[in-house]
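Write out the 3D structure for:
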Amino acid sequence: MATRGAEAWEARQMAGMAAVLALLVLFAAGGGAPAPTSSQPQAAAPQPPPLPVYECRRAGGLVLVDGQTDEPAWGQAEWVRGLCRSDGRGRGRSQTDFRAVWDDANLYLSFVCVDSEIVAKHTERDAFVYEDDCVEAFLSSGSDLRRYFEFEVNPLNAVMDASVFPNPEGTDKVVDYSWNCDGIEVAVRKADLLPHAGGKQCT
């Protein structure tokens, strides 16, 4: 999946240096509780764990958006293998691996997913792709992780993209589904695996 546009990713400013994608994790700070009146020292509040960091390396050559990642450009890309469930309850039942590279024009994301029963029905842009088997990416180009761009792609090559930002009224968040990423390209390739591998592979 490739994205263009200054808002989505300021690739030109990253030339010559490794780009870092921080996995999006939001922490709510507690507030409104009265200050402790006891003279006894209070235990320090537990600190959230550090955010996982992924080093997105520069592509080593031309990248084709064709659902395959066998070009030399991907040779130095770091793999993230065995992604965890979104609810934090361990790893998923099926294997999902991820890697990414960038060049002066684009950011490229690659997912390899193994699934014994691929389910997908949506084919139109900005449909409810999250109801299908899909991969998702959340990209924030600034320090405020409450503002980010969301991308979802299902096995039928349907795309949902949106701009997400805090609600000015202070309640929840605003998801702008009317926003579309200019120049986005996606490609899905499905391949049968050997019977003992337990399913089909999508990239």
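Residues 3-36, 193-197 have pLDDT under 50 and may be disordered.
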